[in-house]
Amino acid sequence: VQLQASGGGLVQTGGSLRLSCAASGSNLDYYAIGWFRQAPGKEREGVSYISSSGGSTYYVRSVKGRFTISRDNAKNTVYLQMNGLKPEDTAVYYCAGHYAVRGSYAYRAYLPRELSEYDYWGQGTQVTVSS
Prior knowledge:
The chain is built from no helices and 13 strands. The chain is an all-beta fold. Strand 4 (31-38) and strand 5 (45-50) form a beta hairpin. The protein starts with a strand and ends with a strand.
């Protein structure tokens, strides 16, 4: 699967952006997707994750209540709606995929939370929040 993140931009504090993670080459149905971000001089960190079924989600504490992750498998796309943006949200945002199938079993409720569990990475999209 190839993933492409888009939707970044420059916004003022309190503004909103919606990031999209579009997949090609494979159906997203069996991939858990994570959104990660990396600010200059900092390590890449997980922001939000969604299981392949869409039934399980997770948010890092710093974005909980402001960001919403969702998926539209018919469009082969995962979204990250970001509201109430703050300058500390400034980073390059990446989406990544975890293939949730082992043998003939699909772990559609599984929610990987470790960066190392994600094998497929898209190019990032820059989000800049001005104060």
